[in-house]
Amino acid sequence: MQTLALVSITLCLAVNVWAQKPRHCRSPPLVVGSLTVSAREGEFFAEAKYTYDALQKRVRFREFGCNNSQSFHTDKLILFRKRVMYDISYHDHSCKRIPLRVHFHPMEVPREAKLLSEVVLGSSSAPGQGLLVNIWVGNVSETGGKYFSTFTEFGCLPVSSIYYSNSTGWVMTSFFNNMNGIGNPEDFIPPDFCMRKENEETEWGTERDFFEALF
Ligand SMILES: *[C@@H]1O[C@H](CO)[C@@H](O)[C@H](O)[C@H]1NC(C)=O
Ligand SMILES: *[C@@H]1O[C@H](CO)[C@@H](O)[C@H](O)[C@H]1NC(C)=O
Ligand SMILES: *[C@@H]1O[C@H](CO)[C@@H](O)[C@H](O)[C@H]1NC(C)=O
């Protein structure tokens, strides 16, 4: 009898946890992973590896892609605290050092986002076949843009985002192979050839949000 009571209490608790409304969550502070971005009706496509550090506000992107039928490769180190972005090319040891006016935006469900739905990607028929995610929608008032963002219910990791603004059009981003923790701390140290004086560049004119900065 006691066992039955315990089991029913446990079940009750489990159901309560399950029934909790999804919360506006923030991703873990240290994440490495990969993503794909496509935009301009497929004229722009890129795959990137990223290293993300929300504690010290810095991000590294190594990106391969195709823009207007031209392939490109970029390597960007963004140090938000130092207000600088390095555009790095190991190929010819060139480096653009670009002062930054954009603010760091952590990977999170924005406070003003509204929950559209909670769904299982894949299947809930058996363990390991599905992924429980929350889909959020919102507007970016600074750019007049709007977005759909999908985050995992457990772990609060980004799964995908669809972003639209007049200046970018539709931008689709998918995240995969995320891992907690920083893989290589040197990802955040600019190479020596970035420290030369002639590598100063002009300032970015506009404030950009996270998705536009990604793009
Ligand atoms: C893609 O190419 C267009 C036209 O050449 C250029 O204006 C644009 O800045 C490029 N976009 C990116 C993200 O490189
Ligand atoms: C976004 O803005 C549109 C148009 O102003 C509005 O109808 C919609 O409810 C807003 N969505 C959210 C999630 O705030
Ligand atoms: C976007 O473009 C549409 C149509 O040209 C225009 O009506 C709207 O005001 C623009 N929105 C922003 C935020 O610029």
How do you describe this structure in short?
This protein is mostly beta strands and 215 residues long. 11% of the residues lie in helices and 47% in strands.
Topology:
Elements: H1 2-19, E1 30-39, E2 44-53, E3 58-67, E4 70-79, E5 84-89, E6 94-99, E7 114-122, E8 130-140, E9 145-152, E10 158-165, E11 169-180, H2 210-214
Antiparallel strand pairs: 1-2, 1-11, 2-3, 3-4, 4-5, 5-6, 7-8, 8-9, 9-10, 10-11
Bound molecules: 2-acetamido-2-deoxy-beta-D-glucopyranose (3 copies).
Family: Belongs to the ependymin family.
Protein name: Ependymin-like 1
Organism: Paramormyrops kingsleyae
Number of domains: 1
Query: Bound compounds, please?
Result: 2-acetamido-2-deoxy-beta-D-glucopyranose
Low-confidence stretches: 205-211
Sketch the major β-sheet. Answer: 11 strands, antiparallel
So how many helices?
Answer: 2
Mean pLDDT: 86
CATH T-level fold name: outer membrane lipoprotein receptor (LolB), chain A
Strand fraction equals: over 45%
Query: Residue share in helices?
Result: 10-25%
State the end-to-end CA separation: 60 Å
CATH class descriptor: Mainly Beta
Write down the Rg: 20 Å
For the largest beta sheet, what order do the strands appear in spatially? 6-5-4-3-2-1-11-10-9-8-7
> Based on DSSP secondary structure assignment, what is the total number of beta strands?
11
Using the 3D structure, state the CATH architecture: Clam
Order of helices and strands: HEEEEEEEEEEEH
| Fourth CATH level, the homologous superfamily | Lipoprotein localisation LolA/LolB/LppX
Q: Which structural class is indicated by helix and strand composition?
A: mainly beta
Any idea what the shape is?
A: globular
